[in-house]
Automatic annotation (TrEMBL):
It holds the Pfam family NAD_binding_2. This is 3-hydroxyisobutyrate dehydrogenase. GO terms for molecular function: NAD binding; NADP binding; oxidoreductase activity. InterPro entries: 6-PGluconate_DH-like_C_sf (IPR008927), 6PGD_dom2 (IPR013328), 6PGDH_NADP-bd (IPR006115), HIBADH-like_NADP-bd (IPR029154), HIBADH-related (IPR015815), NAD(P)-bd_dom_sf (IPR036291). Keywords: NAD, Oxidoreductase. Residues 149-269 form the 3-hydroxyisobutyrate dehydrogenase-like NAD-binding domain. The keyword NAD applies. Residues 1-146 form the 6-phosphogluconate dehydrogenase NADP-binding domain. It comes from the Eukaryota. The active site is at residue 155. The keyword NAD applies. Gene3D superfamilies: N-(1-d-carboxylethyl)-l-norvaline Dehydrogenase, domain 2, NAD(P)-binding Rossmann-like Domain.
Amino acid sequence: MATRLLSAGYSLTVYARTPAKASSLQQKGAIIVNSPYDVANKSDIVFTMVGHPSDVKSVVLGYNGVLSGLNKGGVFIDTTSSDPVLAREIAAEAGLKGCFAIDSPVSGGDIGARDGKLAIFAGGDSDVVKWLAPVYEVLGRVTYVGESGCGQSCKIANQITVGGNLLGLSEGLVFAEKAGLDVNKFVEAIRGGAAGSMVMELFGKRMIDRDFRAGGFATYMVKDLGMGVNGGEGKDAVVLPGAALSKQLFSSMVANGDGSMGTQGLITVIERINGKSI
């Protein structure tokens, strides 16, 4: 995402908690600074992409955080898959400073980020989202989904859907192989029918080729599904048996030491259940 912004001609100031991860961006013209405060102080628009809601809170609201350095009228955009309640808290804090906060997590993995084809779910002030359109267009397709926190709720719902698709694809591939089918022909046969999906297009070949490199870590899927399964109380509570099962299976990946695999590695859990050595 950062590389695409640089290639589009935007000047970029970057803070990375692991500095080595930003070295390639520095070679492409990004300015590297020492804190989120420094990024915000030098920028009109600030993006974050970190791991967990606790990371977002630290980087944005903590000491030397983004909001401490953001100038009046500045815009903060969180693309992390995070907590809707935290997104609303950040938006309220930004408003007190005369700034704006948009929660806009993304979906599409490493390929979508590279190709500028991410699905982007934006929550917050609709006029600010419209103003950000030229920036979002570099990254993918943005959909405004409602007030602050709605972007995060949309991403959680997205992950519930993706998790179910990954589980179905994993079980279909394992069944097809056990039945003696050529799994490549199996995927080719069904991709144009009702079973076809973007999950299949992104991950089907990777599963068959045993390419479990991460576009999105399995451990983060546990986090995202957990926010759906555990979120809401009283009238807001939703019973999600499929998401609960998906979370349990992705948790098995983590327990097996595979939390840093891509989410397509879910097939290894189904294979293990069926007695295949991994």
